[in-house]
Structure formats: structure tokens, C-alpha cells
Design a protein that fits this description.
mainly alpha; 2 domains; disordered C terminus; PATROL1_C; Munc13_1; acyltransferase activity, acyl groups converted into alkyl on transfer
Length: 479
């Protein structure tokens, strides 16, 4: 007794000494202690333990003791484990550890019975077949799958609630992101953290089931964010072609008539209103355009945090081969080093699309009265771009204030492309030098904006489109 006290034996260690006349591994003694707690008032289990003690005292071997007691108690213990799992709605770490110890003890005892049976190995295997095994691996797999499904279901509910409540108002100026996106990313990270806390070997089929569920949530939300129309809905309708070019005598006659003031009052009023607005420049960005900026920020926010989840999976995950339901596309994604392959490949295109819609909304809707509808209307010399440039500078300043650093470059480039399209129109060759200077002034704004965010090569490509259109027009007029 003093030796037992000195060595700090627990209840499980003492029972092993009494029952089996030897010390068993720590996981066996811990499981026996849990077994006692679960089965203390369970009659068949107690009788099985009693029979094991009796046979031991009668001089029978260890295997006989195990067969006598284990056959009577294993079924009842399995029933109690099922009851424990039925009351567990979540994948609790303690529950998993109990199951792992039960499975390890079961395998050890079965192996001991096979190796130590006096009646032969075949007889021992026959006895083992009569035992209802716990199938711990299957239980844990089903429990983990159930937990994944419940977690993803909660994610779908949170996503739907976020869609219904989203107003595209930033939570703060320091974080101009949709609140629904913040909640979705937070939920995904929580699910991932809980997933890695499970003390089990993670197989590729379990990983892919979780990744597929999260990826579907992200794709659903991205479709919701990008559902805001198309840039074509803001582009002005191209007027019908006529048989008279801009340099014909008839066109010159009409131009002189408008300058006399007879029928050009509406054009003059239009130019006068644009000029007044140009003298008092203020941002013309509507509430709708500002909401589009928040959507663009949100897409870049998702791109950043999905990449973060990707790194978390790559750095913390040791994938074991699957023995159940392999996913055909898992090996392809994993070998390429990307788990969220679909969503990560589609997000840049969606960001580009959103930036285009925001730019065309700004230029052809918000700034229509002072930009596209007023530029070179009536008389080219009196309807130049300098007044519109003042407002454009204000719009760009507001845009860079609302957009995050990662979204500014793409948005500014699309605003440049949209504003350049205002020059894709027919003008008399006599006014070409005026249009050319205006285009240089517009080009200069984007060169100086935000210390050259747009690369010079990109600006040259976009400017070449306008230049090519001008050259084609001159060639056509010369014919």
C-alpha cells in the first residue's frame, strides 16, 4: 500500500493491479477511470467486472479475465457512449478524447486476446467477431461531418441575415467595408479555428468538405456584392449615322447659323449652366457611386482574408490520405497549392467589373451634365473641358478618400478609361488642336493624381485608343 501511495497510483492503476496483476499504459488506466464514472450504477457492466476479478483469483490467465469481463461489459459501454454522443450537439474536445481512448483500449485488448489465447489464434478471432466493436473512427468521422454541416448551416443563416440588413454604409471612416462581409469573414475564421482544435487526424475528404462549404458561402456573397448593374447601362446611346460628315459645307453652314444665335439658345443655355457649375466645383459623386466604392472595398477585403485563410490551411494542416469518399478535384487543388481555387480566381475579375461599373456611373451618370453632355456641344471653342476638369478633380479626391489603398489604383484606372471615352466622337478637323490640348489636360490629371498611381505604360495604351480613333476619323474625312 505504501508503494502505491508513493508512486501516486490512481484508481485505474489500482484496478489494473487487482484485475490483471500488472501495470497497464496510462491511456488504459484513464479509460478505466472514465468507465467507472459512466458505469458505476450499470448492473451488467459491474457484473462483468466482478467476473473478471473472480476468474483472476481462481488462477486463470489474463486473457481469460479479459474475455470474461470484456464480453459482458463492452456492449453496455458502447450503449453508454452512444447516449453520450446523442446528448452532444457539438464536437467537444473532451468527447473526442474519450472516443479516442476507447478505440485505443479496444484495439489493445483485442490484440492481447488474440496473442494470449490458449485455445489458438483462430478461436480467439472467432470470439473477437462476436464482440460489437465501437467503430470509433466511424463515430468520430460522422460526428465531425455533422459539426461541419451545422457550422455551414449557421454560416448560411448569417449570410442571409447580412444580405437583408446590408445598407452599404461603412461602419467607420477608418474601415469603409460592408458590415456583412466583416461578419462573414469572422464566422469563417471561427469555424476554421474550431476545426483545428479537434485532436484527431485530419483527412483530405474532411478538409475538402469544409473548404467546399466555405467557398460556396463566399461565392454566394460575392454574387450578392457584384449584383449592381453593368457599365453598358450608363454608356450614352450612339446617335444614328448620317450621310453628312463633320467637315462638309452643310455642316459648316449649320455651325455658323448656331453661332448667330438664331436656333442655338438651348445649346447656349446648356453651355452656360455647365460653365456656372465649373466656376463652383464640387464633387458630383452620388450616393449610388459611393455605395459602389464600398462594394469594391468589400471585394478587396474578401480577397485579402480568403488568402489569409488559405495560408492558415497550408501552414497548419497535415493532410492524411482519405479512406472514405475521395473528392476528385481535391488532388488538383491541393497540388496547385490552393484550397479556395475557384473563389480566388474569380475575385480579381469581379473587382475589375465592379471598378468599371463605379467609373461609368461616375462619368456618364453623376457627371453627365458637366462632362459628356456639355463637352464640345454647340461650339467647340466655347464648350471645352476645363470646367469639367475641376469637378473631376474633386470627384477623384473624394474617391481616394472612400477607397482603401488596394482598391484605389484599379478604380482610378477605370475612371481614366471612362473619361477618355468622352473623346471618342466626331469633331471638325479645324477643332482638332483644341481637342488635343483638352485631352492632354485630362491626361495630366491622372498622371499627377496620387503621385502617379497609374503606370505610364497603362496611360499610353488608353491614350493610344483615342489617338487611333482620331487618325481613323481624319483618314475617313480626307476621302
Amino acid at each position: 500500500m505504501s508503494s502505491i501511495i508513493e508512486q501516486g497510483f490512481g484508481v485505474g492503476d489500482v484496478i489494473c493491479l487487482l484485475w490483471f496483476k500488472r501495470s497497464l499504459p496510462r491511456y488504459c488506466t484513464q479509460f478505466i477511470e472514465i468507465y467507472i464514472i459512466l458505469c458505476a450504477d450499470h448492473g451488467p457492466c459491474v457484473s462483468g467486472a466482478h467476473n473478471a476479478i473472480v476468474t483472476t483469483r481462481a488462477g486463470k490467465g489474463l486473457v481469460s479475465c479479459l474475455v470474461s469481463g470484456y464480453l459482458q461489459s463492452v456492449h453496455d459501454l458502447g450503449v453508454l457512449l452512444m447516449m453520450l454522443l446523442a446528448t452532444s450537439r457539438m464536437l467537444v474536445t473532451g468527447t473526442v478524447r474519450v472516443l479516442l481512448r476507447a478505440g485505443k483500449l479496444e484495439k489493445t485488448l483485442v490484440q492481447m486476446m488474440v496473442e494470449g489465447s490458449l485455445e489458438g489464434e483462430e478461436k480467439a478471432k472467432t470470439i473477437v467477431k462476436e464482440i460489437m466493436l465501437y467503430e470509433v473512427d466511424k463515430i468520430i468521422w460522422n460526428l465531425l461531418t455533422k459539426w461541419i454541416h451545422e457550422s455551414l448551416h449557421k454560416g448560411k443563416e448569417a449570410l442571409q441575415n447580412g444580405k437583408e440588413a446590408e445598407t452599404w454604409n461603412p461602419k467607420s471612416k477608418a474601415k469603409p467595408i460592408a458590415q456583412s462581409a466583416v461578419e462573414l469573414v469572422k464566422l469563417a475564421k471561427t469555424i476554421m479555428e474550431q476545426f483545428f482544435q479537434n485532436p484527431i487526424g485530419i483527412t483530405e475528404d474532411i478538409v475538402q468538405e469544409l473548404v467546399n462549404g466555405l467557398e460556396n458561402l463566399f461565392q454566394d456573397y460575392i454574387m450578392f456584392v457584384s449584383a449592381c448593374g453593368t457599365k453598358q447601362s450608363y454608356v450614352p446611346v450612339i446617335p444614328s449615322l448620317t450621310r453628312c460628315n463633320r467637315n462638309s459645307k452643310f455642316s459648316m453652314f449649320l455651325k455658323k447659323g448656331c453661332q448667330c444665335g438664331g436656333g442655338g439658345s438651348l445649346k447656349a443655355d446648356h453651355i452656360s449652366n455647365a460653365t456656372k457649375e465649373g466656376h463652383n466645383p464640387r464633387p458630383s459623386s452620388s450616393r449610388g457611386t459611393q455605395c459602389l466604392y464600398i462594394r469594391l472595398n468589400t471585394l478587396f477585403y474578401l480577397l485579402t482574408h480568403i488568402n489569409s485563410l488559405e495560408k492558415t490551411l497550408s501552414q497548419n494542416l497535415v493532410v492524411l490520405p482519405s479512406t472514405r469518399h475521395p473528392y476528385g478535384n481535391f488532388h488538383r487543388s491541393y497540388n496547385n497549392g490552393s484550397y479556395f481555387e475557384k473563389v480566388l480566381s474569380s475575385l480579381p475579375t469581379t473587382c475589375q467589373y465592379m471598378a468599371e461599373v463605379a467609373a461609368y456611373h461616375l462619368i456618364f451618370l453623376d457627371s453627365d451634365s458637366i462632362f459628356y453632355e456639355s463637352l464640345y456641344v454647340g461650339d467647340t471653342a466655347n464648350a471645352r473641358i476645363r470646367h469639367a476638369l475641376r469637378t473631376l478633380k474633386q470627384n477623384i479626391t473624394l474617391m481616394t478618400t472612400l477607397l482603401t489603398d488596394k482598391a484605389q489604383l484599379l478604380a482610378l484606372k477605370e475612371v481614366m478609361k471612362a473619361s477618355f471615352e468622352a473623346f471618342l466622337r466626331a469633331v471638325p478637323k479645324l477643332d482638332y488642336h483644341i481637342v488635343s490640348k483638352d485631352f492632354e489636360s485630362l491626361n495630366r490629371i491622372f498622371c499627377l493624381c496620387r503621385e502617379g498611381l497609374i503606370a505610364e505604360s497603362v496611360m499610353d495604351i488608353e491614350a493610344a485608343i483615342v489617338e487611333a480613333t482620331r487618325t481613323t476619323t481624319e483618314f475617313s474625312n480626307a476621302r
